[in-house]
Amino acid sequence: MVDRQHWEQWQRSWDRQQQWYLPDREERFRVMIDLVEAVAGPAPRVLDLACGTGSITERLFARLPGATSVGVDQDPALMTIARGVLGEDERFTLVTADLKDPQWARALPAGPFDAVVTATALHWLPGADLIRLFGDLAGLVRPGGVFLNADHMPEPTVPLLNAAERALRHGRQEQEKAGGVLDWEAWWAAAAADPLLADQVAARHAIYGSHADGESHPVGWHTEQLVAAGFAEAGVAWRSVADALVAAVR
Questions:
Q1: How confident is the prediction for the chain on average, in pLDDT?
Q2: 111 pLDDT above the threshold of 90
Q3: Contact 230/248 with Cβ under 8 angstroms?
Q4: Which of 3, 17, 115, 200 has an alpha carbon 20 to 30 Å from 160's alpha carbon atom?
């Protein structure tokens, strides 16, 4: 049996790699969980969408021990890490589903949920699939519940500000990489070299292929589509120059 510490080390490594791209990652998680608590109290039932290694759920449980979480993903490698870290926690259920499949929600336990949370994931979906997903989520969140999506949402109307942020970010990343921080490609190469993850990494690459930038939309697009999908209101709960946390109340 693999020691849980092995998977916790991979979880920390994943978090550090993601922090390299998103230095304010913990801040957006804090705001996200603040809103979950504000809407649902100390024992929310949460759907962690595209949960990956379980980073959000891990922080949710640390802040709100009475919470329960259903994690959904289809990445075999990241789900292996999530299962290794959280799989023995009776508050956590892990579900394999492809969000591009219109029937994905059939794999879930019965709803509704107090909150749906996701971070830096849904920009991988083509726009048409994301609009359909918003409609699916409107049917999964209870009235008064909330959907929280933290993702790349750059505003094309501020090109000078975007360029300044990009230059600052790239400079910081170069310094940190020189200090040994792994970027996306290096992290996946390290994971593939672990005999306990190698098969899952190969399966992951068969599903997703090579890394791509995905399809990002500005905040206004998200809020308009969420209201059209059936949410009562949607707005910005947090933002940086290029990223935002959009909150939609059902």
A1: 95
A2: no
A3: no
A4: 17
Q: Could you read off the pLDDT of 48-94 as tens digits, one per residue?
A: 999 999 999 999 999 999 999 999 999 999 999 999 999 999 999 99
Give burial (CB, 10 Å; 0-12/13-18/19+) of 191: buried
| Tokens describing residue 190 | 């390290």
The answer to whether the beta carbons of residues 49 and 141 sit under 8 Å apart is no
Query: Could you tell me how many helices (H) and strands (E) the chain has, helices first?
Result: 9, 7
Tokens of 144: 């008064």
For 78-232, strand residue ranges (E) read: 92-96, 113-119, 141-152
Q: What share of the chain is helix, strand, coil (3-state, %, to 5)?
A: 50, 20, 30
Is the separation of the CB atoms in 36 and 69 below 8 Å?
Answer: no
85 CB neighbour count, 10 Å cutoff: 24
In the block, residue with structure tokens 């910081």: 172
Which residue, 178, 198, 181, is CA-closest to 189?
Answer: 198
**If residue 238 lies in a helix (H) or strand (E), which one and from where to where?**
strand 233-239
CA separation for the pair 247, 245 (Å, rounded): 7
Instruction: Transcribe 25-36 into DSSP letters.
Output: HHHHHHHHHHHH
